[in-house]
Design brief:
The structure is a single chain. The protein has one domain: Glucose-6-phosphate isomerase like protein, domain 1 (Rossmann fold), CATH 3.40.50.10490. Helix 1 runs parallel beside helix 6 and helix 4 runs parallel beside helix 5. The protein has a five-stranded parallel sheet, sandwiched between helices. Helix content is 56%, strand content 12%. With 204 residues, it is of the alpha/beta class. It contains six helices and five strands; from the N terminus they run αβαβααβαββα.
Amino acid sequence: MGHAEQSRSLEARVASHFSDSAKLKLDAAQVLCGPIARGIELMAAALRAGGKILACGNGGSAADAQHFAAELVNRFERERAPLAGLALTTDSSTLTSIGNDYGFEQVFEKQLRALGRKGDVLLAISTSGNSANVVAAMRAARELGVHIVALTGNGGGKMTALLSGGDVHVCVPHNRTMRIQEVHLLALHCLCDGIDTQLFGDKK
């Protein structure tokens, strides 16, 4: 294959990713707008009452948890007071000590038990819905009276069974990790925008 041919092939491959991502987002809107809106209301109510949002996930989902917490603490698209968001994925000493002494499955659970309070919200992110340490954090949240907003895909996995009527499940209708993550990012931006609107009014 010549260079020009190879370039055209790569461009077509890239274009297919754009097309697939855009189609999934449009299709997913029909099933995700409702859960995302409920997640906004749950998180905004918690923050209004003095609670906080604690976020966790692995790999790309850890990056999403940190991204979301940064948007709350610093700002999203407007100047406003800092909001209480905390990613449970960032403290290397805590993560490695728990992982070493107790096992990686407990790295989020132990932090949640230390920091979570009734009325807080756990943002639990897993593309498969089966991440053992996220599932463990959700079990702890149930015991503590911490509500859950779960971001999953691929049918929701084991996380689905841990959700109660007061929780929210944003389950992307797809089974490919990168596509699920792309929709998770959009969902997180929707949550950020909605929280700001609920707490500070429509942006002028």
